[in-house]
Amino acid sequence: MDYRVSEPGTSLPSGPPAPRRSGRLLRRVLVTALSGGVVAGAVLAIWPGLRTGVASAPAPGPRAHRAQLRAPAQAAQALTAVTAGMPATLPALTALIGEQEQRVRAQPRDAKAWAVLGTAYVERGRAAAAAADFPRAERALETSLQVVDEEQNLPALDGMAALSLARRDFTEAKRYAEEAQELAPARWSSYARLIDADTGLGDYEAVGKSLEKLMALKPGAAERPAVMAQAAAVYRNRGWREDAVAQLSDAAAAARTPAEQAAYLTQLGQLAFERGDLPDALRHYDAALRQDVDQPAAPAGRARTLAALGRTTEAVTAYRNALARRPDPRDALELGELYESLGMAKQARESYDQVRELARRETSDGVDDELVLGRLEADHGDAQRAVERLREEYDRQPGIEVADALGWALHRVGEDDEALEYATTATDGTKGGGVRSALYAYHRGAIESALELDGPARRSLQESLQISPVFSPLWSREAKSALAALGNPPDVAVPG
Asked: Which of 10, 209, 323, 326 has the fewest CB atoms within 10 Å around its CB?
């Protein structure tokens, strides 16, 4: 079932999507209306969908009727998850959105209902890769902030931080998370969002401080699995794989809902894939999908694992199914590279075109897709344009992912001395790049080889293949070829 943009309630914000940062204009429009005491009229003017609902929707059949009967329970479950900052299923999010739309129709000055509605849009947009939900979320959250201003509106601040993270706007995410943290210093989700924002900004010292504060909160049983999962993400980025696995395993065992358990099982699958344990990765992805068939990252992770196992026909089908359900440009790029590794040039070009189209759509809804577009251009398009894109992105958000991508793009245009600086940032734990990534190590090794630094290049390429000999259907093959070209290290005479 597709929950992206066609479910009841998504007609709420009619008209074209609002441009990014449209909230300031919306707030100025609302402030006049609200101060004049015409709240309902102002809200209906900005949200015409609230007046009309979905009058053209067809009458529900028996299956839809059964789903409607479950909707209140689903909405209640999603409300608990959304307000606590934890995963919820797509059907539950859709039910919650419909419920909150009805609530703001009846009570347009209910700031909490607007905040919950906006945050539910964010989570559905992220889960379904439906960025069209993000402008809806922004309008709802800005409405909430106008009814109750930022100094007191914790739910809306949390929602704005989540929205900014979903759009990869880490600077704005940090600002909102800090404001939320000031209002509620003991609330775990503010620290989690601050950690994600600082990770995207490359401020790993701040990440460490926030993690210490988060772990000192002693959360309750319901929140503890999510806190453990957040700690695992930090440990993974530091290269502490065993600690990350331990935290996630405990989180999955303690999770209270299928959606939450599926999220942690998926992350365990990702860790297993990254270390080259493919059977374990596949087992975790399959388990995640048994818990939640709509789990966002598991289908593409499963496809990635099948490709690494050499089950390429199954992998292609799995990628295509994943993209049909959740059209993510990053997954389309992976499928294109799988096609390219199989010599299917036409299909690869079509996938790369799909990356550009999906990124264009996301960008129109406020998502920063410069990283995926930079990676695409570096390897399959205009490498000089990739450098330009990624330089600008690194100036804004100098995280490890962007450092690696920029270094690789510079290598592709022959600027290897500068490329090595960024590749070192992405792979040197003293500079923040503690994550053990086979791809990053390969990039560094190829750059070192181009600079005729044979010893370091050999070590980096060996590390890449030791981390995972099948990290990519395209680039693991290149890593093996590059290592073979370097040959064995020269014999060194031992002093007599």
From this structure: 209
